[in-house]
Specification:
The chain is α/β, with parallel strands linked by helices. The chain has 2 domains: 143 residues, Periplasmic binding protein-like II (D-Maltodextrin-Binding Protein, domain 2), CATH 3.40.190; 157 residues, 3-Layer(aba) Sandwich (D-Maltodextrin-Binding Protein, domain 2). The protein contains 16 helices and 12 strands. Helix 7 packs across helix 16. The N terminus is likely disordered.
Length: 351
């Protein structure tokens, strides 16, 4: 009996071992398949952007998520981080794992190329319109009735006037304001010394420097500090939604600046998170007709000429300049105006 039991036990053991082997193989395939699926389908993206774009990307994200689900069958979350553009760029350099960056000046993407190769050198060629799906321009927002009769940059240096702008050191919004004022000073004074004196007089009227554009809007609208807010065109729409039509008015100065809003994939992060396909699809979506319509709705100027023309009444023609054409480009501007101890610092310490 004992002898006859051994073969039965051995056969049963072999069958068990076979079942276990097959189970392990199946589990391994499932695990590997899950890892591959996870690698191909990130659960989320992080868009690190500038201060006054939060409402825009909230709407864009909702539509993109639905389209991604319909196309791939997979869910995805798009998280947002907002702040002063230059400060946001430094956060990415410091380790904030952005899959994409959507900034308001090219300098804040170029720095991601220079410091560690986080973004590809040819990022401008990765998407249409030099990787800028929309632009904006600098305007004056004044209180109802424009009580101080402010019409142009020259009015902003009057004694006793309070001008609200964000900090040019941390905010692209503030930097564009500074550069627009500088260009106006060059045009009207005829020299860099005259431009410097003009910008110094303007910033002498700035009572507080917020870190970003939305902070400056809060200072002006909620805290009711200042006679004029200098900011991007879209903030007038945001103010009307929050405070009602008619409480504020928009003044277009005689000279403004063409503020492009460039975008890029953060290559090092998307490689690590296996999210490049989704990140590219997200930035590609910004150029679709649907996204361009959302951009126009939020009072940013769409890059698509046909859609921009469709909303001509919302976007009046303005005399504007490009930093690259008028002021020698962002590298020169950074070196001469915003590096430590240069013109902006000199103006602020002596105002």
């Amino acid at each position: 009996m004992f002898a006859s039991y051994l073969p039965v036990k051995a056969g049963f053991s072999a069958r068990i071992e076979g079942w276990l082997h097959r189970a392990v193989l199946v589990a391994s395939f499932l695990l590997i398949g899950g890892i591959v699926a996870f690698a191909q389908s990130p659960a989320s993206l992080l868009n690190v952007s500038y201060d006054v774009s939060r409402e825009l990307y909230k709407d864009i994200n909702t539509v993109f998520i639905a389209k991604w689900k319909a196309k791939t069958g997979q869910g995805i979350a798009v998280n947002q981080s907002h702040g002063g553009s230059s400060r946001q760029a430094l956060s990415v350099i410091g380790g904030l794992e952005a899959d994409v960056v959507t900034m308001n000046q090219t300098a804040d993407i170029d720095i991601l190329v220079e410091r560690g190769g986080l973004v590809a050198k040819d990022w401008r060629k990765a998407f249409p319109f030099e990787a800028a799906p929309y632009t904006s321009t600098t305007v004056f927002i004044v209180r109802k009735g424009n009580p101080k009769a402010l019409k142009d940059w020259g009015d902003l240096v009057r004694e006793g006037l309070q001008v609200i702008v964000p900090n040019p050191k941390t905010s692209g919004n503030g930097r564009y304001t500074y550069l627009a004022a500088w260009a106006y000073g060059l045009k009207t004074k005829g020299s860099e010394a005259g431009a410097k004196d003009f910008v110094k007089a303007l910033f002498a009227n700035v009572p507080v420097l917020d870190g970003g554009g939305r902070g400056a809007t809060t200072t002006f609208a909620q805290r009711e500090i200042g006679d004029v807010l200098i900011t991007f065109e879209n903030e007038a729409t945001a103010l009307a939604k929050e405070f009602g039509e008619g409480k504020f008015e928009v003044v277009y100065p005689s000279l403004s600046v063409d503020a492009t809003a460039p975008v890029a994939i953060v290559e090092t992060v998307t490689a690590k998170r296996h999210s490049r396909e989704a990140a590219k699809a997200y930035l590609d979506f910004l150029y679709s007709a649907e996204a361009q319509e959302i951009i126009a709705k939020h009072s940013f100027r769409p890059a698509d000429p046909a859609i921009l023309a469709k909303y001509r009444d919302r976007f009046p023609a303005v005399q504007s300049f490009k930093v690259e054409d008028t002021l020698g480009g962002w590298e020169k501007v950074q070196r001469e105006h915003f590096a430590d101890g240069t013109i902006y610092d000199q103006i602020m310490t002596r105002r």
